[in-house]
Design a protein that fits this description.
By secondary structure, this protein is of the alpha+beta class. It has three helices and four strands. It folds into two domains: about 1-35; about 45-120, 2-Layer Sandwich (Beta-lactamase Inhibitory Protein, Chain:B, domain 1), CATH 3.30.1450. It is elongated. This is DUF3862 domain-containing protein. InterPro entries: BamE-like.
């Protein structure tokens, strides 16, 4: 009985190790794929954040439109984007990253698709 338990235990351990190694290889492949595609958006700059015109805080009127912002960012979609609706208003929060690390970025709030707030981090 003790010998059978040992065989089953050994088989279980070998199966676990095999599955773990296959999983680790898949994870390594995913990380390698990500690292190969480090993107750089030169449009995320202090110069361009200064071009963003802020509109009225209540309506967004007069602010840079979302489409104009997309053009300013070279057609690159934001890395993060959230959209909310309420009280007849649409609010969009969008972040354009300079690279995949996300520590240099421009963040813009849109009210009815017009810029009403902006922020930058890490740009010099």
């Amino acid at each position: 009985m003790l010998i059978k338990l040992g065989k089953y235990s050994m088989l279980s351990i070998m199966l676990f190790i095999t599955i773990a190694l296959v999983g680790c290889q898949n994870l390594k492949d995913a990380v390698d794929d990500t690292n190969e595609k480090l993107e750089f958006n030169k449009n995320v700059s202090l110069e361009n954040i200064e071009k963003i015109k802020l509109g009225d805080k209540e309506t967004g009127d007069g602010g840079t439109t979302y489409d104009e912002m997309m053009e300013l960012m070279g057609g690159v979609h934001p890395a993060n984007r959230a959209e909310y609706e309420g009280n007849g208003k649409t609010i969009i929060e969008a972040e354009w990253w300079r690279d995949n690390l996300g520590n240099k970025y421009i963040s813009v709030n849109f009210l009815n698709e017009k810029a009403s707030g902006k922020f930058q981090e890490g740009l010099d």
